[in-house]
Each structure stands twice: as structure tokens, then as C-alpha cells.
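Homework help thread (please don't just give me the answer)

Our assignment gives two proteins as sequence + C-alpha cell strings and asks us to describe the second one. The first is just a warm-up. Here they are:
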Amino acid sequence: MTDRKARMAIFLTVFIDLLGFGIVIPILPLYADSIASQGEAPWMHAVTGWMHLRDVGAFWAGMAFISFSIMQFIATPILGRISDKVGRKPVLWISLMGSAIGYLMMALTMRIEWVLAARVLDGITGGNIAVAQAAMTDGSKPEERSKLLGMIGAAFGLGFVIGPALAGVLAGSTFGESLLIQHGWHLPFFVAAGLSFLAATFVLAWLPETLTPELRAKAKAQESRGHALVVALKRPGMPQLLFIALLAMSGFAMMEGTFSLLAHARFGFGQREVGYLFAFIGILIVIYQGGLVRMVSKRIPERVAILSGLALMACTLPFLPSSPWKWPFLLLMIPLSWGSGMNSTATSALASQLTPPEEQGSLFGAMGAMQGLGRIIGPGVGTFAFAKWGYASPYFIATATIALALALALTLRHVHSGLKHA
């Protein structure tokens, strides 16, 4: 059973790792946009010329997101299944080390090709959150899982409070600007690499193995039934939940992948201002995942929480491209952030309740794969629409995508009631 010490160790590990992730995500689109706009390799110019894009940099910024997500989609379920057999600790360590190396590669280059290569490496080993989720729920009671997964969400939110603000400070600092001008080195990515390495060291030094030897032996004894995602899709009730996760992440990732570009196009924001804006979103995530999620999980069934979260997102997204700065724009972040947190936590908790203890790693790997696929589709469609039709188009497409997830969530009543009697 996962005790309090193990849960705190997982929380701190995820927080340190997400602090580095929070540094990278807000400034990555602007960074990729900037270096891609300075010049393209012949093959890159042929691709963008064929598509007749208005904003070449925005397209390659999207590719920086997608290259990571494609590899994460393939690798995360495999890492989750491996963690069921060998334990959470070694897989989590390998994943964090991959992130550290990927960030270091981005810190040392000013070429978009190397940025894409770094994102591919990070994606291959990018199953750390899925493995941490499985570790957090090891041995827990079904009714505790929304609260425990909320701890992961709170760590994510804290990373997104401090990380983006730190990104803004580092990118705009005299030392950071000097490194960039003189050597082409990007200081925020160096710090992100150091944080992921610190998290990996923390795993070795403090994190106990949360998966019991009995469950590892049971997982090893089971005959391999194929890719964890395929196995999960065969389980009653899981297809709906997995496709809700896919659609919800696709819609949210369209916003996430173009948000920095939107803020730059509408308000002239640079890396510093965008970092502070993402920090504000992180504060909202912490408020929900660190406190409100406990109230929601006690009083609202998972299905209702999924529906409510998706509805809040769908009602918010179409207004972002036209809302004026400052307070109307910032206030829209509240229902968007809380709706996303409500939906994702409830979806994961309900899926976890429908899965045997020895397959929790596979489950969160499969869930991570669907969310990874959403991070392929979302930024890909969003940045292409941004480059082709302007900054408002990704948000209307994202709204339609979330509406599809909402329609699918309406079918969960029959699924859940049927599973209770299975």
C-alpha cells in the first residue's frame, strides 16, 4: 500500500519535474517560432512553401509540440506496462533522465532540427506522469483515487505557477540574454534540465517502490495481450473514457499550443509576459487541484464532474480570441482551468475504478497515450489553423472538439451502471 511518505515523495518528485516542464511549455512556441523564422533548411522551406502558410514560425512551433507527443503516444503505454512488471521506481527514473537530456539539447542549439530531435527523445521517455499516477494509486481504495490524483494535479499546478514565472525571469535576465546572444544558449532550458536531473536523483534517494512484489509477480505471470492501449479499449466502459480523454486533451492542447502565439499577436507579449500569464493559470490549477478537488470528489459523482468540466471549457474557449485585456481575458482563465482539472481528474479516477490493481500502470499508460494523441492532434490542428487562418480559428475548432467530448460523456450513465453489476 502506498503510505504517506511514498505519496509525499511522489508529490515532490512530480512537482520538481513539472517545475522544469512549466519553464519550457510557455516559451517553447515563441522560441521555436523565433529560430524557425530566422531561416529554414531546404526541406523545411519546401514543406511550408507547399502549404502556402502565412506564419511559418507558428507551424514549426506546432511541430515542436507534435514531435514530443507522437513519441509519447507510442511509448507511454509501454512504459506503464513495464512499470507493472518491474516496479514504478526504475521506470520513473529513466523517464526523468530522458527529460533532462532533452532539455539540455534544446538549451545548446539554435536550430529547429535539433529542437525537434530533443522533443522526440523527451517524448520517448515521457511517461513520468502516467507512472507517477499509477504509483500514487497503488494500494489505495477506489473512493480515495480522485483525492490522490488531485495531489498529482496540485503538483502540476504548483509547477505551472513557479515554472512559467521563472521562465519569464530567466529569459529576460541580463545573464540569460547574454548567453543567448554570445553562445546561442537558452538559460531557461538549462534550468529545466537541472530540475529534471534533480527529480531523477530524488527518485533514487527517497522514493520507495510502491508496487508490491505480489502484484509485480502477478503482472509478469499474465500472458502478454498486446499494447496496453488495445487491452484497455477491450475493457467494458473504457472506450468512452479513453475517447473523452482524447477529445478533451485535443481541445485543450489547441489552446495550450497557440496561447503564447495568441498573446503575442493580440497584446504584443514576449517570453517574460507569457511566462507570467501561464503562472496565473498555474495558480488557478493549484487552487482547484489542491483544495476544490476534494470537495468535488466528495459531493459530485465522477460522471457529473466530467460533464461539468467539459461544459465549462466549451463555454470559455470561443471568447478567448476576442476578450479585451486585462480582466475579461484573465477571468476567462478560471472556468477554463477549473473545468479542465475537473474533467481530467474525474476521468482518470473513474477509469482507475474500472481497472484491476495489477493493471493500474497499464491503465495510466493507456490514458497517457490517448492524452498524448490529443497533444498531437491539438497543437497540430491548432498551429496549422493559426498559420493558415489567423489566431481566432484554433479556439473555435477547440470548442467543437470539447462539444464532441461532452456528447460522448452523456453516454457514461449506461456504461457505469452496467459495470456495477458486471
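The one we have to describe:
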Amino acid sequence: MRSLRVLSRALNYPTAELLAQTDALKEVLIEDGFLKKRSLKKLSGFLDDLGAADLMEAQEAYVEIFDRGRAHCLHLFEHVHGESRFRGQAMLDLSERYAEKGLHIGVGELPDYLPVFLEFISICEPEEGLETLAQAAPVIATIGEKLKRKKSAYQHVFNAIVELSGAKLSKEEIEKAADASLPNIQTLDELDKEWQEPEAFGGAGDCGTSCDPMPLMPAQKDEFVGAN
């Protein structure tokens, strides 16, 4: 599903190349026709704004949202397992899923990185891929809810992912999960403290969902993968 590859690209760190591709990304979403009109409109608006943004400002906004703290972390197992011992096994299981498809993680990459996960899903057989994506949907929806509360336009990317998964989720449960999830770190001092004290976040319970360990994908390729 090319739409998932577009959403994967939209969640990458902004580069000049990405900002120049936003019109092409929109065209793929329109051609695929998998998203509802309302979702497509919101996502198109996000891509328009991203394409028109100053590169440094877009990069700063991205770092502020996804890299300063764990509340919106793009590594999904962080929200499911935290620092628990189960995370390592989940990583291995996921890497094996990738290997079965001929995909291999690059040095320094982690298999639970959401953009990589979406790339993996996009090359699976539709039934298999959507079933796997639906398993991850509660975690993805919870991150999206937190982004909504932060008034971040990236929420529209997460909402689109959940919509494509076809998962039927309870709004109340997602809101409850967002209330109970990992703390949102506001300052560098808070971030340092959080990393020094792993007991401050308690693993799977932090996410507030019952999502099973889920599978994800390899290091990203440099070429644009959505237009063909």
C-alpha cells in the first residue's frame, strides 16, 4: 500500500528533499483513494504546510515533538515495554519478521521505529499487513491523541495510519491511555533526569493499552518510495 509509504516518509526528519516532495506525496494519497475525504483534507493541509515551511524551523519543530522526551517517541516498543526485559525479545521477534521479507536493520537502527514499521507493512500481503498494523493501532492512536493535545499537526499523520489499519478503537480507552502514558518532558534537565531514572516509567503499563508486541521494519532507503 503506497499510502503507508507516504505516511512513513511524512514522519521522517525533515530534509530539503522531503519538503520538495510534499506535492508528490499528496498525489499518491489521492491516487490510492484509501483515506476518507476529511482525513485526506487534513493530511493534505499538513503536507502543504510542511512543504512551505522554513527547513530549520521544520527540523526544530520535529525535534521538539519527537526527540525531546518519550511522550511522542517514534519507537513503538518504548510505549509498550518501556525498559522491561520483554522489549529485547520483542525486538528480536520483529527483526526476524523483517528478515523473512528480505529486510535487514542497519547498524544503529532499531526495528520498532514507526516509519520503518510502516515500510514493512507496505510490502506485506494486504491481509497480513493490515492485521499487524491493527495490532499496533492502539499505541499509534495513543501517540496521536497526545499530539492532538499538544496541538501538533503531526496528529493527522497518526490519525491516517489508524484509519488505514481498519482497527475499531474506543475513543474513551485511547484518551485514558494517553492520560496514563509516559510523562511529557519539557526541559533538557527533565530529559536528563528521566533517562537517568528508568524506574520513573514502568514499561507496558505506561501505555495504557493491551496491545500485543508488534512487528516493524529496516533502515530507510534514500530513494522516494511513494511515487511509483
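TA reply:
I won't write it for you, but here's a hint about the kind of observation we're looking for: The chain has one domain: 2-206.
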